[in-house]
C-alpha cells in the first residue's frame, strides 16, 4: 500500500503482531513492574489480576496495567457465562481470542456450577469496583501511571533504607523521572550585589519574546567545487570516517570515533548519512547545500563545553532513532513524513542545552523558566531554537513541503521533543504498556497502529528510548557516556554550591556513588522502558536487553565494597536532599527526606564499618552473544 507523506492519518503498515515473551530468554530478570502490587490483588482471582493470555503453547504473558487487567477479567467473565448458560458461541469480535476454541456445551456438577457462578460474580464485582473508581477526566493510561509510580516509590523507599548511597540514588531517580507537584522550598538569600547583577543581565537580554541562544554561526561553505563534501563535512580523514559510518545501520555505532574523524561534526555527518540512506532529501525535495548548511548551523548551537548534552549526544540519539525506525516489526508502519519528523526531532531535541537541569533553571529564576512557566523549560527551548534556525539564511530544509505537511511535521516534532522531558517518563511508560497490553487482550495480539494517535504514541516512546539508550550500547561506549553525564552533574553541583544552594542528588562530587547510580538507573528506569519496548517489537530487541543486563551486572560488580564517602552535612557541601535531579524533574517528595545515618552496617572486626548493602549481590558476567559484538571484559577497567 502506498501512502502519501502528506497524509498523517494513514499508515503504510497493516498491523503489528504482538508475540508472547520468548521462553529462550527466561533467564533474564524482569523489571519491578512485574512484582506484586497488593492494591491490585483484591479480586478473588489473583491469577486474573495478573492475567495471563494463554496461547497455543500455553505460554503466559503477565498483564500489569490496570485497564488491560479489567478487560482480561471481563473476558474471563464472558467465557464463564458461556459455560454456565451453555449459550452457543457466535462469530463476533467479542468471541474468545482466535487461538481459543469456542465452548459449545459443558456439563458441570451442581457444586462446580455454584463455584464457577460465585467466582464469576466476584470477578464481575471486582471489575465494577475498578471502573467505578476511574476519574472521568483522566485517561486509562493514568491508572497504570499511578500504579507504576506507587510501585516505584515503594522500591525507592526500600533502596533508601539500605545504604547511604541508596538514599542518594533514590532521590536522584525520584527527582528526575517522576512528574509531581510539590511544595517549593524557599530560595536561599541572595546578596544584593548578586541580585543587582542578575537584574542588569536581564535588562540587557532584551524582550522576553526573543528566543535566546540563537546566534550567527560562522562555518565554511558546504559546497566545494560545485558539489557537497562526501559526508557533508570537510575532513582530511575521509576514509576513516567512511569506515566509521559503515555502522550507520548498526546498534552501537561508535559516535566518538565519528566525531574524531569529522572534525567534531558528528551530528552533521550522521544526519547526512541517515538522510542519504533513507533517500529523504529526494522524497521531500531538500536541496543538499541547504540541508548541510542547516545541520552545521544546528550543530553550532550545541555547546561544545557541555560534557554530555552536546552534539555527540544529539548524533547518538538521531542514529539510535534511525535504527529503531528500521526495526523489522515496525516495517512499513510509519509514513515518510513521520520518519522525517522523528529523525529531525532527535537531532534538535537538546540544542542550546546549558548543561543544567530544568529544576536548576526554576530554582535560580532563570529567564527560560519564566518564559515557559516552569513547564518542560529546556524541552520548550530546544524546540524554539530548532525551529527558529530554519529561518536562517539557506537553512529551511522544509521549504518544499506543503503547508499541511509543515503543520503536521511541526506538531509531531513538538510532541516527540516534549516527550524527552525525563519527568514525563512514568507517563510515557504507562501509555506504551497500557496500549500494548490492551491490544493483547482485545485484538488477538495485533496492534494495528492504523491511526495517527497510536503511531505518535509509539514514536514518542521511540525517541524517549533512544534518549535513554546509553546503557544498552556496548560497554566501552556506555562507560564513556557515564563519565560525561557525571562530569556534567558535578559541574551543576559546583554551581549550586557557589550559589549557596543545596546540591542536587548525584551532583556532589564528594559523595556521589557512580556505580550504584547506574545500577539503580537501569533497574528502575531503563530496564522497565526497554522491556516494554521489546514487548512491542518482539523478538527484535532481545540482543539489546541482553547487553543491558550485561552492563548492569558489570556496574553491580564494580560497586565499591568499602564504605561510601562521608556526607558533608555541617558545611552544606553534601546534602543529599537537593532541589533538583540531574535531568529536570520536580522537588523530591517528603518520603525521600531520609535520615542520613545508615542502619544496615556491620563491623569488620578492625574498627571499621562495611556498607553491606553496597556489596550484597553477587553477579556473574556473561558477555552478550558474538553476533552483537558487545562483549567487553571488566578487566578493561
Could you list the spans in which at least 5 consecutive residues all have pLDDT below 50? 1-9, 39-60, 94-101, 181-191, 201-208, 566-618, 626-637
Oligomeric grouping of the chains: single chain
H-E string = EHHHHHHEEHHHHHHHHHHHHEHHHHEE
Shape: globular
* Helical proportion, percent range: 40-55%
Bin the strand percentage: under 5%
With strands numbered from the N-terminus, the spatial order across the biggest sheet is 1-4
What's the mean pLDDT score?
76
Structural class: mainly alpha
Tally of helical segments: 22
Radius of gyration: 26 Å
Number of strands: 6
Report how far apart the termini are: 51 Å
Q: Describe the main β-sheet briefly.
A: 2 strands, antiparallel
Structural summary, described in words:
The protein has 637 residues and is an all-alpha fold. The protein is 48% helix and 2% strand. It has 22 helices and six strands. The chain has helices spanning 46-49, 66-85, 110-132, 140-162, 164-177, 192-204, 238-244, 255-261, 266-278, 280-283, 288-300, 311-325, 336-348, 358-363, 367-371, 377-388, 403-418, 425-442, 452-467, 475-498, 514-536, 542-558; strands at residues 16-17, 223-224, 227-228, 446-447, 601-603, 609-611. The chain has a two-stranded antiparallel ribbon with strand order 1-4. Strand 5 (601-603) and strand 6 (609-611) form a beta hairpin. Helix 2 packs antiparallel against helix 3 (110-132), helix 4 packs across helix 18 (425-442) and helix 21 runs antiparallel to helix 22. The chain starts with 15 loop residues before the first strand and ends in a 26-residue tail after the last strand.
